[in-house]
Design a protein that fits this description.
By secondary structure, the protein is an alpha+beta fold. It contains 8 helices and 7 strands. It has a single domain, classed as Alpha-Beta Plaits (2-Layer Sandwich), CATH 3.30.70.
Amino acid sequence: MPRANRHFLPGQFWHITHRCHEKAFLLKFARDRRRYLYWLFEAKKRFGLCILNYVVTSNHVHLLVKNTGTNAIAQSLQLVAGCTAQEYNRRKQRQGAFWEDRYHATAIEGDAHLHRCVTYIDLNMVRAGAVRHPAAWAHGGYREIQNPPDRYRLIDLAMLATTCGFRTTTDFQQAHRAWVEEALRLNAIQRDARWSETLAVGTQVFIEGIKRELGSKARHRDLEETHGSFVLRQPSTAYAITFAIKNGALKPKYAFSYGKKAFPTWG
C-alpha cells in the first residue's frame, strides 16, 4: 500500500481518528486513557496544539483540532501516540505496534458543520453502548466543555464557541447541551462515515475550496452530497490523510524519564 500524501491547510479544522493496531482494545483500562490525555496536554503546552474536542475510547481516539499554521499537529501526534505506546509496552512488557500506521483526518467547515462534528464525537461512547450519556464517560470532551476545570484544560472553549457562531462560551455551552439532548431524544446516534472516512465535510463552496487548495492531491476525489452536507470522497483505502506520524520506534526527543512527577488524574 503506498504511503499517504501529507498536507497542511493553515486555519482549517480537522477531525482526526486514530485506531489501535488491528482494532485491539489497548486503551481499555482507564489508566491508559488518562495517560493519553496527559500527553495530549503536554502537546498543547509544548507545541500549541489547538484542541476543540476529543474522546478516548477503548480502541481508538477522536480529536477535533485547528491547524494553527505551524507543525503543531504532526509534532503533537508524534508525541502523544509515541509516549502512550511506549508507556503501555513498557508496563505490559510488550513489543510491536500499538497504533495503526496511519490516522485519518477530515477537514471540517466551521459553524454548523463543526458543531455537528462536536456532537458526533461526544456521542461516540453512547453509540458504542458503554454509557447512556456522554457526561458519564470520563475521557471525553463533553464534561470539559460543560464544566471546564481550573487546571489541565485541553479544550480551547473560547475558540470553539466563536467558531460555532456564539458570542459567549455560556451561550455555546447551553446550545451544546441542547444538541446532545436532542440527538439522544431522537436516537440520532448512529455512525456517520462522512466524519471519519472522507477528506472534507461542509458546504459545496467549502469543499470546492478544499479541493482547489489540495491541487493534485485531490485528483480523482469526488464531491458528493450526503445528509445535508457536501463531502469530498477519497479512494476506498481508509485513513488516507496523514500528518507524517509513523509507527515504530519512539524518536529520542520524545522519550522521557517519568520518575516521580505528579500527573493530573483526568477524571
